[in-house]
Amino acid sequence: MLSREDQGSDYTSGRLDADKVKGYNGKFFDVATTTGHFLCGPLGMIEGVSGVLESLGTAKSTIHFELFNTAGATAEAIAKSSSKASANAKVTVVLDGEETHFEMGPKDYVIDAALDAGADVPYACKGAVCCTCRAKVLKGTAEMVMNYALVDDEVKDGYVLTCQTHATSDELVISFDE
User: Fold this and answer.
1) pLDDT tens digits for 63-85?
2) What is the pTM assigned to this prediction?
């Protein structure tokens, strides 16, 4: 429906944004009766559209998205996460019922340390977007630098994106099987 080409109407020209969503509500959809919103695009668009949908009364759990790309972790986010990281963590990664044991430093991400240790762990984007490297912390603590793929309930349940995760305890057990 939207295009960069002039379509003769502000409703159908340009990128989807907060103002367009407000205008579409009640004309093309109604947030009160829509059971789900599925968005795909760059981070700025997703944040703007999600924000206005929530302000119109849409439950966050009904907004689903896929990002084209992200801005990447800021130096501040990396420094904050690294400052909490364990100096040398003993890590166990569980994949298909098999355990791989290794140590990782405070600046290491779980996915990279696991790959270096020979574990055939799943990953794709390494940018906190695709969720391929999703795993569950079974023991210990860890912190993600960025997260654009997991919903709040998944994080609360202990899931992390291993491409963005530093160990914050001396011992960490993470399972890709959960």
Assistant:
1) 888 777 655 555 454 555 555 55
2) 0.64
Q: Are residues 93 and 60 in the same domain?
A: no
State pLDDT tens for residues 25-54: 988 889 888 899 988 887 788 888 999 999
CB-neighbour burial class of residue 142 (10 A; exposed 0-12, middle 13-18, buried 19+): buried
Identify the bridge partners of residue 165 per DSSP, sorted by sequence position: 144
Residues 111 and 144 reside in one and the same domain = yes
In a domain, 132, yes or no: yes
Are the beta carbons of 77 and 158 closer than 8 angstroms? no
- Residue 38 — φ and ψ, nearest 5°? -120, 120
**Which of 129, 128, 139, 138 minimizes the C-alpha distance to 165?**
128
Distance separating alpha carbons of residues 111 and 90, to the nearest angstrom: 14
pLDDT per residue as tens digits for the range 91-102: 999 999 999 999
53 with 20: CB under 8 angstroms?
A: no
Q: Does 84 lie in the same domain as 132?
A: yes
Tens digits of residue pLDDT in 118-167: 999 999 888 888 899 999 999 999 999 999 889 899 999 999 999 999 99
Residues whose CB is less than 8 angstroms from the CB of residue 88 and which lie 6 or more positions away in sequence, other chains included? 103, 104, 105, 106, 170
